[in-house]
Amino acid sequence: MNKVSTMFRKNTDYSKLTEYSKEMTTKKSNYSLLNKKYALKNQTVLLGDSITDFFNWYELFYDFSKSSGQAVYNRGISGDTTDRLLQRLQENVLNISPKNIVLLIGTNDIGRGLPLSMTINNVEQIIKSAKEACPDVNFILEAVYPVNENMRDRFEKRSNKKIQEMNKEYIKVCENYNCVWLDFTDKLKDKNGNLKEEYTYDGLHINAIAYEIVAESVIPLLK
User: Fold this and answer.
1) What is the rounded end-to-end Cα distance, in angstroms, of the chain?
2) Rounded to whole angstroms, how far apart are CA atoms 31 and 102?
3) What is the 3-state secondary structure (H, E, C) of 85-147?
């Protein structure tokens, strides 16, 4: 595991901080059913938290799907954290042997107060598990997007400083596991390092204008 500044005690139980709600549990079960009965193998999976969950993927990936014959499945769950995503990885993603995995995760780890080292360890395990189960998978790891600190509660745990620290560690993981690194920070931030107001409605989640920017960069990286 990478050595980072914020360490965590392996015996500490952080599960109460990331416990799934009924809605999240239901969505996890829904994905499991879809994978088991309907989803095709060797397709593209978008994976992550609410920023992925809200992705206007059908419209923005329509031309890609039409030209490639490849489906794009959204497996985002609002509020997801790296530990819970790791737990659902097999039944929500790996059992359909995806050709491409696009992962964006980590902002809720900061929001819930999880140690950075725990997050990095979880992301390592996610990538490692994916590559062991699907040796030819094209794994794209996204940098966590900046937030607009002027639009978020000033007592909130998220900050662009913490996000930058997380992304620096993500780069190392990406290099170690030969993943594709995709960083939208420069495209999404304003001159002060905040998520641009025209790209968000609450300082955290992005809108269709920003999703269009993301999709236009992701699509050329898909196999």
Assistant:
1) 29
2) 16
3) HHHHHHHHCHHHCCCEEEEECCHHHHHCCCCHHHHHHHHHHHHHHHHHHCCCCEEEEECCCCC
CA distance 182 to 94: 21
Which candidate, 218, 77, 43, places its Cα nearest to that of 140? 218
Read off the pLDDT of each residue in 90-101 and give the average, rounded to a whole number: 98
Question: Are the C-beta atoms of residues 8 and 117 closer than 8 Å to each other?
Answer: yes
- How far apart CA 168 and CA 154 sit, in angstroms, is 24
Beta carbons within 8 Å of 203's beta carbon, 6+ residues apart = 147, 148, 149, 150, 151, 152, 195
What is the helix (H) or strand (E) element at residue 70, kind and residue range?
none
pLDDT of residue 8: 53
C-alpha to C-alpha distances, 130 to 109, 127, 174, 196, nearest whole angstrom: 21, 5, 13, 33
| Bridge partner residues of 45 (DSSP) | 73, 101
Q: In whole numbers, what is the pLDDT of the chain averaged over residues? A: 94
Rounded to 10 deg, the angle between the 22-37 and 82-92 helix axes is 30
pLDDT of 1: 44
At a CB cut-off of 8 Å and minimum separation 6, what does 55 contact? 46, 74, 76, 211, 214
